[in-house]
Amino acid sequence: MNYCRVKYDRVLPSQLGIAVKSTVLLLITFLTFKLSQILNRNSTMSSSSSPNDAVQRILSSKLYFDVPISKVPLIYSSKYDISFLGIEKLHPFDSAKWGRICGFLIKDGVLDKNGIVEPLEASKNDLLVVHSESYLNSLKYSANVAMIIEVPPVALFPNCIVQQKVLQPFRNQVGGTIVAAKLAKERGWAINVGGGFHHCCGGRGGGFCVYADITLCIHFAFVRLNVSRVMIIDLDAHQGNGHETDFSNDSRVYILDMFNPGIYPLDYEARRYIDQKVEVVSGTRTHEYLQKLDEALEVAAHAFDPELIIYNAGTDILDGDPLGRLKISPDGISSRDEKVFRFARERNIPIVMLTSGGYMKSSARVIADSITNLFTKRLIDTHVTGT
């Protein structure tokens, strides 16, 4: 959660009115959240799936489907984008960036819109592979969703609308992350233009992350792809406390997390579960950042031999991002992504890229330019090759 400081010595009447309205909305959200907690205590509590149940759910899932060779392993659906009466603009995240990324790629001639893979929406049965029944039930209360996505007015809307306008887009992105692993194993790489909800774990959400798509993706890969070793390379500016919590005692998963330690989520418990922690403090610039990344990848190469890489490629490291507080140039982000893809290519390891955080309108253009660079350097091929 991010807080705004207001200088009250020169507050205009209009600014005061906005401040009062915001306070009222926060109070309503808090009270509604407390009410939902009371109601939840009276509901039946259950944990996430047992190992056998999880395996059966994965085997019966429809999220893994055959993709024709006429499609490239770039996953996106117009259902990703969130449009909710303009309320989505109250959070700094650009909730239409996913469509804008594809729009840039198509306009630049890097991608044919007919070649994009459209995923299926993750069902409740799919989500129960990782999430508890009680957590999924908690999302039936709009106040809980408002707290997770950090947009207080969402608490005031009927949950049926919240499910359709907010949660369904997230579930579609979860489906995209999960099928991306299958495509990466088949084609060598895959990019989900959405996903990367790394603050969510099986039992809780937060930081605009409602579902644990990274954890789900990996569990599906364990069962359906016969993968037994996965490396998470998390280069979002924020610590990936969700997947760190979920894989805290799982030696099959190696986590390299390079993050700003002075910003959200400040989850010191989850930091204990990071295999390779690389801290980049506020104000870190491009040259120093890329040097630290080179060193980190060198260490990771000797520490773990993965069969699949999940790359969480947040662009909130971009200079000017209000939440990441780092100073990485657009070219620096392209270089970062190129380094990670080369790391995977040189070792013949399938890689899944997720776009994760990024809180400026310019992020969509930067991501598209980086994907174009990967194409230009022949690290990916986004052109249709056959039918």
What does this entry look like structurally?
There is one protein chain. The protein is of the alpha/beta class. The protein has one domain: Histone deacetylase domain (Arginase, Chain A). Helices cover 43% and strands 8% of the residues. The protein has a seven-stranded parallel beta sheet, sandwiched between helices. Helix 11 (286-303) runs parallel beside helix 12. The chain is globular, with a radius of gyration of 20 Å. This is histone deacetylase.
Q: Which terms summarize this structure?
A:
387 residues, Arginase, Chain A, 7-stranded parallel β-sheet, 13 helices, disordered N terminus
Coarse morphology: globular
CATH superfamily membership, which one? Histone deacetylase domain
- CATH top level is Alpha Beta
Query: How large is the count of helical segments?
Result: 13
Largest sheet: 7 strands, parallel
Order the strands across the largest sheet as they lie in space: 1-2-7-6-3-4-5
Distance between the termini: 47 Å
Q: What is the total number of structural domains?
A: 1
Mean pLDDT: 88
Number of strands: 7
- Which architecture does the CATH hierarchy give at level 2? 3-Layer(aba) Sandwich
The proportion of residues forming helix, as a percent range, comes to 40-55%
User: How is the quaternary structure best described?
Assistant: single chain
User: Approximately how much beta-strand content do the residues carry?
Assistant: 5-15%
Helix and strand element order: HHEHHHHHEHEHEHEHEHEH
Look at the helices and sheets and give the structural class: alpha/beta
